[in-house]
Each structure stands twice: as structure tokens, then as C-alpha cells.
Amino acid sequence: MDARQRAAQYYDANPVFPKDIPFYRARILSPHARVLELGCGTGRVLLSLLEHCSYLHGVDCSEAMLALCRRKLKERAVPAGKVCVDLGDITNLSLPMQFDLVIAPFRVLQLLVSDDEVEGLFRTVRRHLAPGGTCILTAFNPKFDPQGLLENWVSPEEILIYDVPYRGGRLTCHKRRLAGRPEKQIFCSEVIYRWFEGEVLKDQVIEPLAVRCYDPDQFLRLIEDHGFRVIGRWGGYAGEPYGEGKELVVQFTV
Known about the structure:
The chain is of the alpha/beta class and about 250 residues long. It is built from 6 helices and 11 strands. The protein has helices at about 20-25, 45-50, 65-75, 115-130, 145-155, 215-225, and strands at about 35-40, 55-60, 85, 100-105, 130-140, 155-165, 170-180, 185-195, 200-210, 230-235, 245-254. The model has no long low-confidence stretch (mean pLDDT about 95).
């Protein structure tokens, strides 16, 4: 079952994506590079990197998200030999090639809440890195320790994330923070999309969401404990110092 089937149509309306495209472009060191994107979704990052590499392979677990990505590729008439997007499990992936750069943008790692899923992702990365290749993973930088995060997380009232024009009406996105498990740093919420025409509610989608959090030191240890070597770390996509910005961005290699 595709958990994002109904929400996928609203994904690209989000005006608060991180400004991460220039950062990823700068990490493609050759026009001959091959890039693997884990959790490519509707192609927000993937389509922006196509001109900077020789081949890009995207994988996602949502067919609804991939359908939107494929439609964009078709509209741009991107040659089939330049890109491929597949339905797949990024925690158990085995493609017949390796890549110079593996990325999982916009905190994809944090959507893997079980230890088995996290282990599987790192196996996927190791299996698909070409010699000398690198991977970039990201997470948000929590403001609190696990207990403090729990105390400040739960908010049964809706929090407005954005309100934007949409299909002649408007689309709102709210978040409701429901519960947390501080021992595993897993926090659950609901993302609520509402599409209005005038004052008439045309559609509502409630998408459950669980994320696993890491503080800056934990994030580095997670990568290093899986046998990788960190070669770059930032607190954001404009080069902010690691641990001081809103993001945790780490580049590593075997």
C-alpha cells in the first residue's frame, strides 16, 4: 500500500523546502559522474541535477510520488539513457551498478525509525558506492536533548506550516505533534493538507509521520560506527558550522 498516494499531489506545493540544490550540484565533481538518489520522491532534487552528471538513478517507495516525477521527466523529454526512476526499498536495494555520489536529501534517513531499516540503508550505501565515491545524508539539528525534545514536541493543536495559492484556491499544510519515544528518539506527528476553493474545503489528507532524531554527535557516530569515514560536515547548505545550524549535513566515504 502506498502511504503517500493521496498526499503526493500536494508535495510540490511546499514553499519551505531547504535551499539545497546548489549544495548538491557542487558535490558532483565531474560531468561524467553517476548519481544515486535514495528517496527521490517527485524529483525536486533529481531534475535539478540532471545537467550536471552523466546518469542519475532515483528510487522511492511511493508509486504516486514517482508518477509525478516520471511526468516531469517526460515533459522535459529527458532521454531514457540519462535517468531512471524505480519503485524500490532503499533499505534493501541492489542495483547492477555503482555510483560516484549517493544522496538522500531532505532528511530521508530520519524516516527510517527502526534499527533494521537504518542498518539496511547503510548496506545499500556501501553496496552502491563506486571506488572513491561519497554519500551525503542529512537530518535536522534538534534544539533539545531527548527528554526536552519530547516535552517540547507534543502539541495536539495544529501548527500552520504554510498557506499557498493552489489550483485557483489555496492549500494549507498543518502539523500536529502527537507523541514521542525518547529512548529511541522517535517522534510521531500528522501532516494535514487542506485544499480550499474560496471557503469550501475540496479535499483533506491526513498523513501520519514518524521521524527518528539524532543530535550532532550521534549523527557522526552513526555514520562512523558503520565503517565510513567522514570527509565533510555542515550545519546547513550555505556552509554553516556543523552543530550550529538548523541542519546536520554529512558527507562520507568508505
